From TrEMBL:
<keyword id="KW-0808">Transferase</keyword>
<dbReference type="GO" id="GO:0030170">
    <property type="term" value="F:pyridoxal phosphate binding"/>
</dbReference>
<dbReference type="GO" id="GO:0005737">
    <property type="term" value="C:cytoplasm"/>
</dbReference>
<dbReference type="InterPro" id="IPR015421">
    <property type="entry name" value="PyrdxlP-dep_Trfase_major"/>
</dbReference>
<protein>
    <recommendedName>
        <fullName>Aminotransferase class V domain-containing protein</fullName>
    </recommendedName>
</protein>
<dbReference type="InterPro" id="IPR022278">
    <property type="entry name" value="Pser_aminoTfrase"/>
</dbReference>
<dbReference type="Pfam" id="PF00266">
    <property type="entry name" value="Aminotran_5"/>
</dbReference>
<comment type="pathway">
    <text>Amino-acid biosynthesis.</text>
</comment>
<dbReference type="GO" id="GO:0006564">
    <property type="term" value="P:L-serine biosynthetic process"/>
</dbReference>
<dbReference type="InterPro" id="IPR000192">
    <property type="entry name" value="Aminotrans_V_dom"/>
</dbReference>
<dbReference type="GO" id="GO:0004648">
    <property type="term" value="F:O-phospho-L-serine:2-oxoglutarate aminotransferase activity"/>
</dbReference>
<keyword id="KW-0663">Pyridoxal phosphate</keyword>
<feature type="domain" description="Aminotransferase class V">
    <location>
        <begin position="8"/>
        <end position="148"/>
    </location>
</feature>
<dbReference type="InterPro" id="IPR015424">
    <property type="entry name" value="PyrdxlP-dep_Trfase"/>
</dbReference>
Length: 148
């Protein structure tokens, strides 16, 4: 009798297809036939570099990321990135400022956290509720911002 899988509607990791889990299980012991687990692999090895390069390539293709954009692989959850992004990027330009598009609770938290590291501007008029994304024509972007 096959065990019934639990449904997960919570925030965070999503439910994965059985085929993906089985592939991960197989490669957990012997990644791609190289004789070691990906968990045992040096982050400096050529095999690990192949994983990173392929992952970046697939992300660029899936999300249509232009070549003049950097793809950052960062550890930690979303809330940790609210600090990590401004801590690392807000100083890219002399004005130490960033533009934020606040469309809900999480982006509002990100903008608030970024205020610890520099000047933050919300690029669109204040919204009473988060039911839509403001039209880009209503945004006022700061050319001195280190990032949006």
């Amino acid at each position: 009798m096959e065990k019934k899988r639990t449904l997960n509607f919570g925030a965070g990791p999503a439910k994965l297809p059985q085929s993906v889990l089985l592939q991960a299980q197989k490669e957990l012991l012997d990644y791609s036939g190289i004789g070691i687990s990906v968990l045992e692999m040096s982050h400096r090895s050529s095999d690990f570099n192949k994983i990173i390069n392929k992952t970046e390539s697939l992300l660029r293709e899936l999300l249509n990321i232009p070549d003049n954009y950097k793809v950052l692989f960062l550890q930690g959850g979303g809330s940790g990135q609210f600090s990590a992004v401004p801590l690392n990027l807000i100083g890219l330009k002399e004005d130490r400022c960033a533009d934020y598009i606040v469309t809900g609770t999480w982006s509002a938290k990100a903008a608030k956290e970024a205020e610890k590291y520099g000047k933050v501007r919300v690029v669109h008029p204040k919204m009473d509720s988060y039911t839509k994304i403001p039209e880009p024509s209503s945004w006022t972007l700061n050319p001195s911002a280190s990032y949006v």
